[in-house]
Amino acid sequence: GKKVTGDRIGVADRELLRTLANQGAIGLENAKAFEEIAQLNENLEARVEERSRELREIQAQLIQSEKLTSLGQLVAGVAHDFNNALTALRGNLELMEIDPSKSGTYLREAISAADRAAGLTNQLLDSGRQTRLHNGDGDVVTIAEQVVELFKRVAPINIGVTLTAQPATLGRVGIDHSTLERALLNLLVNARD
């Protein structure tokens, strides 16, 4: 065809049209590449979010697994103590049967062992249920000492626990015994982990 002016299209005009066509083609390719990059970016963001969600779920599962492991170790220690109390109870009952003349001594020991076993059972039951708070007069140091002794049974050898509170500084206060025991035990288990 001819130009608007009516002149024929020359070599320079063809070069200009070729350059414009090439620039247009490059622009179309760039636009297509930009759309592909944007789509890849969206896909990548979605994959990163999905992977982050999966990692959060795995982390939550690991935390739960560690809690269960800690609980298992604690239960193993309590079960050991419970069996010791039952062994003492049975042994004293057998001694009463063998030598009835000393039954008073053996009976006191058997009752003490039964009380220890009942206390362990109550500790396990209390730690597993949500109960209403029962404020009572309690010796914080004594409760802390009992919790530390319970924890020492399940703590690795390389972990030591030292109770530094002095009875004179704390004394007896109004507390819920089982809640304080659970809180102290949780602190010790978390510190261990």
Structure description:
This protein is mainly alpha-helical and 193 residues long. It is built from 5 helices and 2 strands. The chain has helices at residues 11-98, 103-128, 140-152, 167-170, 177-192; strands at 136-139, 172-175. The chain has a two-stranded antiparallel sheet. It is rod-shaped and about 140 Å long. The mean pLDDT is 81.
Features:
single chain; 193 residues; mainly alpha; two-stranded antiparallel sheet; 4% strand; rod-shaped
Strand order, sheet with most strands: 1-2
Give start-end ranges of low-pLDDT stretches.
none
Distance between the termini: 85 Å
**Helix percent band:** over 70%
* H/E topology pattern: HHEHHEH
Number of helices: 5
User: Over all CA atoms, what is the radius of gyration?
Assistant: 39 Å
The average pLDDT is 81
Residues in β-strands, percent: under 5%
Number of E-type strands: 2
Tell me, briefly, the overall form.
rod-shaped
Q: Which structural category fits the helices and strands?
A: mainly alpha
Can you summarize this structure?
The protein is mostly helical and 193 residues long. It has helices at 11-98, 103-128, 140-152, 167-170, 177-192; strands at 136-139, 172-175. Helix 1 runs antiparallel to helix 2 and helix 3 (140-152) crosses helix 5 (177-192).
